[in-house]
């Protein structure tokens, strides 16, 4: 028996077109501590359920107009947390099975015995409490997972920002070592991203391409200053040493998980479309797309930037020169993307302030 002083009395809605049955069940359940309501038909019961929000409904299967199965379907749809016990006539097994299939908690034969009625209701309410507890736990778990996922995403963003800051600091040090003017590496990144955007490269791939462009000369950390900073032409042996820097860069980056794709761009950034580049002599689309895009961006920046040994040659000449080598040194599609951006667009990109990836 439920004690109203201890917990809320379960609300039970009794649905039957026979007043004698309604009253008899109501008396029994009231004595057991249940708060009982009654309805004479299925449609009235549905309206009462909307107002009283019962924990359990006891309904006859066969009633005038809308029957108990109609009411069961509506209750399962509109009040899924309400348990339902059906009353069926003696021998109507088919109806009883159909009720269970449609979501009833139990069924009883009319007229129900008091002990069987009470036990059926206790079982139905017990299952309802278990289902609600599972539902609350599931929602709580979903909230926890959502919160943890948000925290994880925030942490990953912070970690990525820290990675990017470290990469930029390293590249800035390399630029300073070579006495580069301005922000060479970051301008190359901006050109590379603009070309990738013009070519329709998926956004998900652009971060890796940008990092490859940023780190393209990381291998020069292994080139002696006497060679790297030599003001005059390099000797054949010195040139051979300089040509090692893509491989050295790849060796540095390849073991870093999130730099696997950038490492391939670093290894391939001196390859040429016609296969005349180094270190592997790759040809055409065998060269990673990021490296092909970078090759145009790097040449453009080199020709339009002041260097200690020469002045900028300007965008008009740089665009013309890169176009002249389309199909030999450079991927024609990348060159087309550069010309599509145009001189004014490229000059605007060069003037942009540098910002993290």
In CATH, the homologous superfamily of the largest domain goes by the name Hypothetical protein af1432
Shape: rod-shaped
Unreliable stretches: 1-6
Strand content: 5-15%
CATH class of the largest domain reads Mainly Alpha
Encode the helix/strand succession as letters.
EHEHEHEHEHHHHHHHHHH
Q: Any idea of the CATH topology of the largest domain?
A: Hypothetical protein af1432
User: Would you tell me the structural class of the helices and strands?
Assistant: alpha/beta
CA radius of gyration is 39 Å
Mind telling me which CATH architecture of the largest domain this is? Orthogonal Bundle
Q: What is the count of structural domains?
A: 2
The oligomerization state is single chain
Q: Let me know the largest β-sheet.
A: 5 strands, parallel
Portion of residues in helices? 55-70%
Distance linking N and C termini = 67 Å
* Tally of helical runs: 14
Strand line-up across the major sheet? 2-1-3-4-5
Mean pLDDT comes to: 87
Characteristics of this structure?
alpha/beta; rod-shaped; five-stranded parallel beta sheet; Hypothetical protein af1432; Rossmann fold; 357 residues; 2 domains; 14 helices
Detailed description of the structure:
The protein is α/β, with parallel strands linked by helices. The chain has helices spanning 19-31, 42-52, 68-78, 93-101, 114-177, 184-198, 203-214, 225-228, 236-242, 245-253, 260-268, 289-303, 314-324, 332-351; strands at residues 11-15, 35-39, 56-60, 83-88, 106-109. The chain has a five-stranded parallel beta sheet, with helices on both faces. Helix 6 (184-198) crosses helix 12 (289-303), helix 6 packs across helix 14 and helix 11 (260-268) packs across helix 12. The longest helix is centred in the middle third of the chain and has 64 residues, at 114-177. It is rod-shaped and about 110 Å long. The relative contact order is 0.07.
């Amino acid at each position: 028996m439920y004690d109203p002083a201890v917990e809320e009395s379960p609300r039970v809605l009794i649905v039957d077109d026979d007043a004698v049955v309604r009253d008899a069940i109501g008396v029994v359940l009231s004595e057991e501590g249940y708060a009982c309501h009654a309805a004479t038909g299925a449609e009235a019961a549905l309206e009462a359920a909307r107002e009283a929000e019962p924990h359990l409904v006891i309904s006859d299967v066969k009633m005038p107009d809308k029957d108990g199965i109609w009411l069961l379907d509506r209750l399962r749809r509109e009040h899924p947390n309400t348990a339902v016990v059906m009353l069926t006539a003696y021998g109507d097994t088919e109806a009883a099975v159909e009720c269970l299939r449609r979501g009833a908690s139990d069924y009883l034969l009319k007229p129900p015995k008091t002990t069987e009625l009470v036990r059926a209701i206790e079982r139905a309410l017990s299952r309802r409490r278990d289902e609600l507890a599972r539902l609350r736990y599931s929602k709580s778990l979903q909230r926890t997972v959502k919160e943890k996922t948000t925290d994880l995403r925030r942490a990953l963003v912070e970690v990525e920002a820290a990675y990017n800051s470290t990469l930029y600091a390293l590249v800035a040090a390399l630029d300073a070592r070579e006495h580069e003017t301005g922000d060479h590496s970051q301008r190359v990144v901006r050109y590379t991203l603009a070309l990738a955007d013009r070519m329709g490269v998926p956004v998900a791939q652009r971060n890796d391409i940008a990092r490859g462009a940023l780190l393209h000369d990381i291998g020069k950390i292994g080139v002696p200053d006497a060679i790297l900073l030599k003001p005059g032409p390099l000797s054949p042996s010195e040139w051979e040493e300089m040509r090692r820097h893509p491989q050295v860069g790849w060796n540095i980056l390849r073991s870093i998980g999130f730099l696997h794709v950038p490492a391939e761009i670093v290894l391939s950034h001196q390859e040429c479309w016609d296969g005349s580049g180094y270190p592997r002599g790759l040809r055409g689309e065998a060269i990673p797309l990021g490296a092909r895009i970078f090759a145009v961006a790097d040449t453009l920046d080199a020709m339009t930037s002041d260097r200690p040994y020469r002045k900028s040659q300007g965008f008009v000449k740089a665009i013309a020169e890169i176009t002249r080598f389309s199909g030999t040194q450079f991927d024609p599609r990348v060159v087309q993307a550069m010309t599509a951006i145009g001189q004014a667009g490229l000059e605007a990109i060069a003037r942009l302030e540098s910002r993290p990836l």
